[in-house]
Description:
By secondary structure, this protein is of the alpha+beta class. Helices cover 31% and strands 21% of the residues.
Amino acid sequence: MVRAFQRLEGSRAAEDIMEAVERLSKERWGAIICIEQEVGLGEYAESGSVVDAKVTADMISMIFAPHSPLHDGAVLIGGDRILTAGAILPLSQATMSDRSLGTRHRAALGLSEETDAIVLVVSEETSQISVARMGRLERRVPLERLRALLSGVDPAPKKTRMAGSTPLRQS
């Protein structure tokens, strides 16, 4: 299976995700965007609403608009498709020393502890962008760094496929 992250490299989807995150940050609209890698996110998709739409900045922005019925949950992306919105993610049980981190950050970290997904968070309180992957949360991520992550310049170490994981989309 080709990694979803690799399919994003140099793709329009990566640029649209970048554009959406930048818009959401400027508007101070909270968001959590999960990009499937080798470990499937199918079990988490079941908690959300099927979207099955091409990744576009407009679609991502529309989902996270404050009065959208799906804005509180997570968007799950597989390849160049938004597959699910409004998904509920597992919360990290790790002790977080920074009390300013909310549920979105705990959920992003929780999913990154259980899968190899790249999880982007936009804080509605601070407009800061964070990235969770491989059980670590990187805060105050500048757009240049986010571009490097999405383009594959800074890939995370591989995690082995977890038993029972179901990909959102088969290649």
